[in-house]
């Protein structure tokens, strides 16, 4: 019984990692590649750790597997965020089929500043558009 | 049963995954692409170490997996800081 569970988790984890690798080689630009590699890769590592914990059937193995899974859950989003942010700031080109880039009209690459939604250029009622969001108290 | 499954199915699947991400690491047009490929390689290596722990029955390999995951995260953050603070741009 345990052997079947271990085999299932192992096959599922290896297939998730293979899907992540296929995604990283097939998808067109940096954010889509990150989307493949971080989520599917982390899922594959977590499933394989579950298989390891089940196959040892000891408290120590469960504790270590849980520690690795928690660590992956904590760090994979942080690493993806940091790399994606650096790639966007450096100016890695997006895919030509990208339909939404919300940062394009708000991010100033020269001054490295980001304006918020309240200070968009088309809503020019704000007398000082560089100042970002300002709270206006209700009258 | 588990041992034959590991040697015949799991290791080849993970090896193909490693090969594909190594191709992206060599090809990747920009430096952040390569960093993403390196991160995926580290994640696959964590998986391989877990599979090896199951195969050999040595519990201490899971500690190695923890250390590899930690260093991979630190390397990714360090590379991102390097790219963002203006390292070499010509990839």
What's the number of structural domains of chain B? Answer: 1
What is the makeup of the main sheet of chain B?
none
Radius of gyration of chain B, taken over Cα atoms and rounded to an integer in Å:
16 Å
Largest interface: A-B, 52 and 50 residues
Helical segment tally of chain A?
A: 3
Mean pLDDT score of chain B: 89
Within the largest sheet of chain A, what's the order of strands? Answer: 1-2
Secondary-structure element pattern of chain B, one letter each = HHH
Helix content of chain A: 55-70%
Q: Helix-strand pattern of chain A, N to C?
A: HHHEE
The poorly predicted ranges of chain B are: none
Mean pLDDT of chain A: 82
Number of H- or I-type helical stretches of chain B: 3
- Model regions low in confidence, pLDDT < 50 over at least 5 residues of chain A: none
Radius of gyration of chain A: 22 Å
Distance between the termini of chain B: 46 Å
Q: Tell me the helix content of chain B.
A: over 70%
């Amino acid at each position: 019984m345990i052997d079947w569970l271990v085999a299932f988790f192992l096959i599922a984890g290896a297939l998730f990692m293979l899907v992540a690798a296929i995604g990283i080689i097939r998808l067109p630009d940096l954010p889509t590649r990150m989307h493949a590699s971080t989520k599917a890769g982390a899922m594959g590592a977590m499933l394989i750790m579950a298989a390891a914990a089940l196959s040892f059937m000891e408290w120590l193995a469960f504790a270590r597997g849980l520690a690795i899974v928690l660590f992956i859950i904590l760090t994979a989003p942080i690493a993806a965020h940091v790399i994606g942010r650096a790639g966007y700031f450096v100016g890695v080109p997006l895919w030509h089929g990208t339909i939404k880039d919300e940062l394009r009209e708000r991010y100033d690459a020269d001054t490295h500043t980001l304006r918020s939604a309240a200070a968009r250029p088309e809503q020019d009622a704000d007398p000082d558009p560089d100042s970002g969001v300002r709270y206006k108290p209700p009258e | 049963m588990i041992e034959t499954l590991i040697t015949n199915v799991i290791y080849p699947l993970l090896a193909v995954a490693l090969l594909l991400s190594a191709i992206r690491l060599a090809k990747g047009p920009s430096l952040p692409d390569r960093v993403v490929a390196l991160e995926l390689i580290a994640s696959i290596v964590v998986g391989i170490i877990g599979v090896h722990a199951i195969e050999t029955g040595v519990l201490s390999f899971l500690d190695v997996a923890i250390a590899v995951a930690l260093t991979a995260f630190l390397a990714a953050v360090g590379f991102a800081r390097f790219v963002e603070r203006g390292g070499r741009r010509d990839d």
